[in-house]
Design brief:
By secondary structure, the protein is α/β, with parallel strands linked by helices. It folds into two domains: 3-177, NAD(P)-binding Rossmann-like Domain (Rossmann fold); 181-306, N-(1-d-carboxylethyl)-l-norvaline Dehydrogenase, domain 2. It has helices spanning 11-22, 34-43, 82-85, 107-115, 157-168, 179-200, 204-209, 211-231, 240-250, 257-263, 274-283, 289-308; strands spanning 3-7, 26-30, 45-49, 54-56, 59-61, 72-75, 97-101, 120-126, 129-134, 137-142, 145-150, 173-175. Helix 6 (179-200) packs across helix 12 (289-308), helix 8 (211-231) crosses helix 11 (274-283) and helix 11 packs antiparallel against helix 12. It is globular and about 50 Å long.
Length: 315
């Protein structure tokens, strides 16, 4: 598993590529951001922060045809870019493992419709943050754990082999036989903090200290829990309040990626987070008013910024 393509060379994808490249893998970064790709081609990808400072020579391109057949393809795009990212994939063969490392729910199901379920694995990044400093350079804020698991659940030899590759690059890896439990555990935190932080301009730790914001966050989390249980998901927590507070205590100054995206004028992943909980809740007879309202508010904010510009502020 030595030749790896990473579709989506944003902050997270670039960190993945830089560290895997430093570990001796043949890495290809694929992205439509021409300036970023050009710098990486000339100078390599610079990764600074939690995983040490380094510049790593990796391949970079805007064209899938340049890459050739790969052992592993990592999908690290935003949720709303999945179909575009997989429109042309000559790097995938019958034995190529496809690993989705993305926020939210519904991503794997959409990928499955395009490539089938046979070679699909899911990765969940926990406590893992990164940001783009400038073209060709990213800052790695922190890393706790990446969970890996089969889309169809269960344990497999290839998952263990994949974990070994990522561990060789310095990642803390845990193989899960029920990756969907991990997905919904993270989703609970995402829906609790992402939307309210985006609407109110708060950091994660500030939500806990703001009684009104905390009330909204907890309501969103409880609806996610109710929906997961209705689906038959075994959750990694019992009390969502304790689950959220323990998480916030670890990264109180962190900004959710949704807030960062909206501040930068980019489309958020609200449809894969709070919006996805609303859809799943409806299909399983669960009432989810808090997530419905937060989804509508974030979309209102996005539309406001699109029409009137960022000069009007985030909140």
């Amino acid at each position: 598993m030595k030749k790896i393509a990473i579709i989506g060379a944003g902050a997270m994808g670039s960190v993945y590529g830089g560290l895997l490249g430093a570990a001796g893998c043949e890495v290809w970064l694929l992205d439509i951001w021409q300036e970023h790709i050009d710098v990486i081609r000339k100078k390599g990808i610079t990764v600074k922060g939690a995983s040490s400072n380094r510049r790593v020579r990796v391949h970079a391109t805007t064209s899938p045809e340049d890459i050739g057949l790969c052992d592993l393809v990592v999908i690290a795009t935003k949720a709303h870019d999945i179909e575009a990212a997989l429109k042309n994939t000559p790097m995938m063969g019958p034995e190529t493992i496809v690993l989705s490392i993305q926020n939210g729910i519904g991503n794997a199901e959409r990928i499955e419709k395009i490539i089938g379920p046979q070679n699909l694995l899911i990765g969940i990044a926990e406590g893992f943050g990164a940001s783009v400093v400038k073209p060709g350079e990213v800052y790695h804020h922190g890393w706790a754990m990446i969970h890996l698991g089969e889309y169809r659940a269960g344990l497999s030899k290839r998952t263990a082999q994949l974990a070994a590759v990522w561990k060789s690059a310095g990642f803390n890896i845990k193989v899960s036989k029920d990756i969907h439990s991990v997905i919904w555990g993270k989703l609970t935190r995402n829906v609790a903090f992402s939307a309210i932080c985006t609407i109110a301009g708060l950091r994660i730790g500030q939500v806990i200290k703001n009684a009104s914001a905390w009330q909204i966050a907890l309501a969103c989390a409880r609806e996610a829990k109710d929906t997961a249980l209705a689906k038959g998901i075994v959750l990694p927590y019992k009390d969502p309040s304790r689950w959220l507070k323990a998480f916030a205590a670890k990264i109180p100054e962190a900004k959710p990626s949704m807030l960062i995206d909206v501040e930068a004028g980019r489309k958020s992943e609200i449809d894969a987070l709070n919006g996805a909980v609303v859809k799943e809740a409806e299909s399983h007879g669960v009432y989810a008013p808090a997530n419905t309202i937060m989804t509508t508010l974030v979309k209102t904010l996005e539309e406001k910024n699109r029409v009137f510009g960022q000069a009007f502020g985030v909140f």
